[in-house]
TrEMBL record, chain A:
Lineage of the species this protein comes from: Eukaryota, Fungi, Dikarya, Basidiomycota, Agaricomycotina
Classification via InterPro entries: QCR7, QCR7_sf
Chief location: mitochondrion
Function description: Component of the ubiquinol-cytochrome c oxidoreductase, a multisubunit transmembrane complex that is part of the mitochondrial electron transport chain which drives oxidative phosphorylation.
Name by which UniProt lists this protein: Cytochrome b-c1 complex subunit 7
Entry keywords, A to Z: Electron transport, Membrane, Mitochondrion, Mitochondrion inner membrane, Respiratory chain, Transport
Annotated family: Belongs to the UQCRB/QCR7 family.
Subcellular location: Mitochondrion inner membrane
Presence of the UniProt keyword Transport in the record: yes
UniProtKB/TrEMBL annotation, chain B:
Organism the protein comes from: Lentinula guzmanii
Topology in membrane: Peripheral membrane protein
Record-given protein name: Cytochrome b-c1 complex subunit 2, mitochondrial
UniProt-listed SUPFAM superfamilies: LuxS/MPP-like metallohydrolase
Family annotation (InterPro entries): Metalloenz_LuxS/M16 (IPR011249), MPP/UQCRC_Complex (IPR050361), Pept_M16_N (IPR011765), Peptidase_M16_C (IPR007863)
Main location: mitochondrion
Length: 124, 424
C-alpha cells in the first residue's frame, strides 16, 4: 500500500472539522520541510511499487518532466546542505495531489481485477 | 402429414431481408430472426474513414470500442462478456463503423447494454488510449505492411478518390492522434440519425424496447459530413519487400454502383466454382505459372471501384499476368457471347445472395441500406441483375476501360510494369 490510510475525506466531509484541522495541517506541512526544497507532497510517495510506477506512466509528459525537475533541484539543494532560496519554495496553493488520485485509480483497477479473478458465477 | 410438413417448412424459411425497419425516436432499428441458436446485435455507425476529421481517428475509434464507459470498466466488459459467453467485435470500413455483439439467445439485455453504454457514455481515457488503443493501432499498421494486396488497394483508393473515400482505413505510422481527437470524433458521430441498430436472431420489438430508452440521450443529428466522391485516377508505385510483387489496375466511377459492373466482376472472377479446378474465368487460362489475379469490386454509396489485383513472384511474371487480365477485360467490352452473359449474371446473383446468408454479409449488404432508409431486401439487387443485357454490359465495360485507370505497383518497382506496358 503506497498511500496508506487517510482520514482526509472524512475530515473534509464535515465543515467544523475542516475549519479546525486545516490550520494545523498547513502548519504541519510547512514544518515537514519538503516545501522548502521545492517539492510537492506527492513527490514523497515511495515509487518502488508497481502501482505507483503505473500511475507515474499515466502522468502527462509535462507533469513527468516537472516532477523530475523538482527532484533534481531538491537533490542538488541537499548536496549543497542548504534549502532553496525562498522564492523557489513550493507555495501552499501549488502543493496539489497530482499523483495520488492516479494511484487510487490503479488500486481500484487491481481490486476489480482481483474481484473478477475470484468471482463465483451462479445460474439464476 | 402434408400440412405438418408445410408448416415446418415455413418455420425453417430463411428470411433474406430485415423484416421491418422501425424508426424509433430517430434510430433505425431492424431485426431478422431465422431461429438460429445465437443472436447478434450490431450498431452500424456512419463513422468510417471517409468521415474522419483528422487522418486516423476512425481507426483509433474502432480500437477504442468496448473500453471504459460510465457503467463498466474495460476489464469488466471483457470478463462479464466471457461469463455470458459472447463475442464483442468492432470493424471499420470506409463508410461504416460496426460494433457487434454476438451472444446466446436470452442474453440480449446485457449485450445491448454494453453497446449502448459505449455509444452513450464512453470515457475515452488518456491512459486507456496509451495503454490499450495505441499499441493495437500500431500493430495493425505494422501488420498491413506485410500485406501488399491491402497496401495496393489502399493506395488505389487514395489515387482514385483523393479525399473522402480516398482516406486510408488505417492511421499513418507516425500519427498525432490523441484521445481528445477520438472523443470529439465519437461525439459528432454518435447521433441518433447516424446509427442503425441491426439484430439477427432477436425479436424486433425486444430490440426496440432495449435500445429506445438509452439511445434517446444521444444528440439527434450527426455533425460529420464527407464531400461527394469524384473519380480521378492516376498512377503510384510503392517500394516494398518481402511479399509477392503486386499490381492493381483499377477503374472507378462516381455515382451509384451499377449492376453491370457487379456482373462484370462475377464474370471475370477467378475463384473457381469447384475446388482445385482452374475455373472458367477468361483470365485464368492465360496466366503464367505462380501468378494470381483477384477481381476486386468495391461498391460504395456514391462511387465504386472495380479492379484487378495481380500478384506474382517476379516483375516480368506480373507483367505477363497483367497483360492477360487487361486483355480479358477488353474482350468483355466487345460483348459477351452466348451463355457467357447468363453465366455471369448467375454468378453475380449467387454472390449477392450467398453474401446475405452469413451474418457479416447480411450486415454489410443490407445494413447500409437500413441506415440510408432504403428498402432493405435482397430482391431489389437480384432484380437489377436480371435486367442486365448483353449490350448494357458491353457498353458499361467499354466506358469503364476508357476512363483513366488507377494503377498501383507495390514491390520491386524497378521490374514491375508501367500502366502503358499492359495494353491500356
Amino acid at each position: 500500500m503506497p498511500l496508506g490510510l487517510t482520514l482526509a475525506p472524512k475530515v473534509l466531509a464535515s465543515k467544523t472539522l475542516t475549519s479546525w484541522i486545516t490550520p494545523v495541517a498547513h502548519w504541519y506541512a510547512n514544518l515537514a520541510g519538503y516545501r522548502r526544497y521545492g517539492l510537492k507532497y506527492d513527490d514523497l510517495v515511495i515509487e518502488e511499487y508497481e502501482d505507483v510506477q503505473k500511475a507515474l506512466n499515466r502522468l502527462t509528459p509535462r507533469e513527468q518532466y516537472d516532477r523530475a525537475f523538482r527532484m533534481k533541484r531538491a537533490s542538488h539543494a541537499s548536496v549543497l546542505h542548504n534549502v532553496l532560496p525562498k522564492e523557489e519554495w513550493t507555495k501552499p496553493e501549488e502543493d496539489v495531489r497530482f499523483l495520488s488520485p492516479l494511484i487510487r485509480e490503479v488500486e481500484k483497477e487491481d481490486k476489480e481485477r482481483a474481484m473478477w479473478d475470484t468471482v463465483y458465477v451462479s445460474r439464476k | 402429414m402434408l400440412t405438418a410438413r408445410a408448416s415446418s417448412r415455413t418455420v425453417q424459411r430463411v428470411a433474406r431481408n430485415f423484416a421491418t425497419v422501425v424508426d424509433s425516436a430517430g434510430v433505425k432499428v431492424a431485426a431478422v430472426d431465422n431461429n438460429q441458436p445465437t443472436a447478434s446485435v450490431t450498431f452500424l455507425i456512419k463513422a468510417g474513414s471517409r468521415f474522419e476529421s483528422k487522418p486516423g481517428v476512425a481507426h483509433g475509434l474502432k480500437n477504442f470500442a468496448f473500453k471504459s464507459s460510465a457503467k463498466r470498466s474495460a476489464l469488466g466488459t471483457v470478463r462479464e462478456s466471457e461469463i455470458y459467453g459472447g463475442v464483442l467485435s468492432a470493424s471499420l470500413s470506409r463508410e461504416h463503423l460496426a460494433l457487434t455483439a454476438e451472444f446466446l439467445r436470452g442474453d440480449e439485455p446485457y449485450f445491448v447494454d454494453v453497446l449502448t453504454s459505449f455509444v452513450t457514455s464512453a470515457k475515452f481515457a488518456r491512459h486507456e488510449y496509451n495503454e490499450y488503443v495505441a499499441p493495437t493501432v500500431e500493430s495493425e499498421i505494422e501488420e498491413s505492411k506485410f500485406n501488399p494486396g491491402f497496401q495496393a488497394v489502399e493506395a488505389a483508393h487514395a489515387v482514385a478518390f483523393h479525399n473522402g473515400l480516398g482516406s486510408s482505413l488505417l492511421a499513418s505510422p507516425h500519427n498525432s492522434i490523441t484521445h481528445e481527437d477520438i472523443r470529439s470524433f465519437a461525439q459528432s458521430a454518435f447521433a441518433r440519425d447516424n446509427i442503425a441498430v441491426l439484430g439477427t436472431g432477436i425479436d424486433q420489438a425486444t430490440l426496440t424496447s432495449l435500445v429506445e430508452q438509452s439511445l434517446s440521450k444521444l444528440s439527434a443529428t450527426s455533425q460529420l459530413s464527407s464531400p461527394a466522391s469524384s473519380y480521378f485516377g492516376g498512377e503510384t508505385r510503392l517500394q516494398a519487400h518481402g511479399g509477392p510483387q503486386t499490381v492493381f489496375i483499377g477503374f472507378g466511377s462516381a455515382g451509384i454502383p451499377s449492376p453491370e459492373i457487379a456482373a462484370l466482376a462475377a464474370f471475370l472472377s477467378t475463384t473457381p466454382s469447384v475446388k482445385w479446378s482452374q475455373g472458367t474465368s477468361p483470365i485464368t487460362a492465360a496466366l503464367p505459372k505462380g501468378t494470381a489475379v483477384e477481381v476486386v469490386y468495391l461498391p460504395y454509396s456514391d462511387a465504386s471501384l472495380f479492379g484487378l489485383l495481380v500478384q506474382g513472384p517476379t516483375g516480368p511474371a506480373v507483367k505477363e499476368a497483367g497483360k492477360a487480365a487487361v486483355q480479358a477485360l477488353k474482350t468483355v467490352s466487345n460483348g459477351l457471347k452466348g451463355d457467357d452473359l447468363k453465366k455471369a449474371l448467375a454468378k453475380a446473383k449467387f454472390a449477392a445472395a450467398s453474401a446475405v446468408d452469413s451474418r457479416e454479409g447480411l450486415l454489410s449488404v443490407l445494413g447500409s441500406k437500413v441506415l440510408s432508409g432504403h428498402e432493405s431486401s435482397l430482391d431489389a439487387t437480384l432484380a437489377s441483375l436480371d435486367k442486365v443485357s448483353e449490350n448494357a454490359l458491353a457498353k458499361a465495360t467499354s466506358s469503364l476501360v476508357k476512363t483513366k485507370p488507377v494503377f498501383v505497383a507495390v514491390g520491386d518497382v524497378a521490374t514491375l510494369p508501367y500502366v502503358d506496358e499492359l495494353g491500356l
